[in-house]
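Researcher: I'd like a structural prediction for the single chain below. Treat it as a standalone chain; there are no partners to consider.
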Amino acid sequence: MIPDAQETEISFTETVGEEEAWQAVKDKCLQDAINGDYRAREWLTKNCYSSTLTAEVQPKSQPKQKKKEKTDTEIINEAVSGLVSIGYKKSQARGIVNKLAVSKIYKSSEVLLRDVISGV
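Model: Treating it as a single chain, here is the predicted structure.
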C-alpha cells in the first residue's frame, strides 16, 4: 500500500475547458427540460435565456421625446373651406393654410383665416 499519498483531482472543466463544460451543462439541462423537468426549464430560463433576452429586447433607455404639437386637422380643413367659400381654389387654399399651420400652432380656424387674409 502506498502511504497516504494525495491524489490530484482533475476536474471536468480543466479537461475540456470552461466553455465546453458550460455548454455540456446547458445541453443536459435542456434535455431534462424537454423530458418534462420543470426545474430544469426554470433554471434554463433564468440562467441562459432571460439575461440574453432582456439585453436584446430592452433598448437602452433614451430620453422620451415630447410629441410635437401641431395644428389640428379639423382646424386646417375649416380654414380651407372658408377660403374656398370666398373664392380661393381648393389646392391654393390648402397650400397657404398648410404653410401657416407648419410655422405656428393654431387653436381656432378663425385665427388661422385672419392670418391668411392679413398675409402673415
